[in-house]
Amino acid sequence: MKKINILVFLAAIFLLFTESCIKSTLFGDEIIQNDEIGIAYIDTTTLKGKTVKCDSLLVYPNYSIYYLLGELNNPITGKAQSSLFCNFYSTYSAVEDPDSVTFDSIVLTMNIDTSTYFGKKGEEHHLEVYELEESFSTDSLYSDDILQYSSLKAGELDFIPGELDSLTIIEPGDDTITYTNIIRIKLDDDLGKRLLQDTAALKNDTLFNDLFKGFYIKSTPVSNSMFYMMKRNDDYYSRMEIYYSKGTKHAKITFLMHNAFSHFDHDYSNAEISQYFDDETKADSFLFIQGMAGSDIKVSIPDFEFLKDKVLNKAELNFYTVKENENFIIDYPQRLLTYYTGEDGEQIKIEDLTFGDNILQNQYFYFGYGTDYDEEGVKGKKYILNITLHLKEMIEKGQFSTELTIKPERRTGDPGSAKFYGFKSPKLRARLKLLYSNKN
Fold it and tell me: Distance between alpha carbon 355 and the CA centroid of its chain, in Å?
């Protein structure tokens, strides 16, 4: 993700001054000698696992205001597309005598986050809008669900998300308003006339949702590119508006965007990742992770019984991204999260994450945020996942093996992907670092 984040910047400054000290005291013996105080450090504990496809990604209901649109394509993780289904609020207002007014136009206005992009900057997008033929369900929806929509386009627009100019619009009443970071798509006149004529539907939610079910929206870039459509921005909602006039008086009816959910398509044809799904042997070489409905990493620590009579001071998983060909663009995930499987099969965040988020106020170093590394002649992103509290809990229960799932945070809004060195890679392998000491 290309976005200036002041917290990441400050964290990077913090790490610049502290990382060497942290490494020396916690994960090396330059300062603390093992034979002096009984402290031991190892990073050779056996790890097993595999790359797996994301299973059943819930996308609705949700509380998001950011939705991805576009397409990313690279030879590692293949082609990933994100599109959008949305509907709108009824207005509870209508023209009492539709035959007495003159329809002018119907326009879809959407907020665009021009500060954030994924893939190639400055790419032109071709956006297409289709009217839904199927209403939103009250049940849960997943990223592979599709609502039926018309084959006829209701509107389309070519634009560059990061290069939008401000728009000055003369609204009904002759108010001149300047908008920033929006696009306006003229929609098919027949839709506007149909809505304007049905006064009963415009005043009733149920009738309105029967009359107009919403839109399916997709955006196709010239090349690799994704951007954020925002449902609202500084209290300005993405919306649909019908403009009309009665005599010399101009007016409009506004429909604010209501529900929305993302649809993700992943095509792994000829992609490197396709050879690694569910293969524990190949995971020794490389591991892969991807946002949206992409992939997760399963990690098994099959035996840490040697810690049962020890004091575990620190445990962390380290993953190093592979240096790849610079001819294609990779957006790395901002953060990785660690889960274990509960008794009912649900995925539960490990206690370390709760501690990190609630107590340490999102400190970046030990809780899954990607940071730059330069080790063994390779540069890339390093992800440190603290699992100390989780292993302590296992040991207290007398359980000396565990299986964890590594997932991207905010995966519906972060399409980032990464290829990591595997569990037995000769260089920068994925590893578990342990610091422990003898009990008094």
Answer: 23
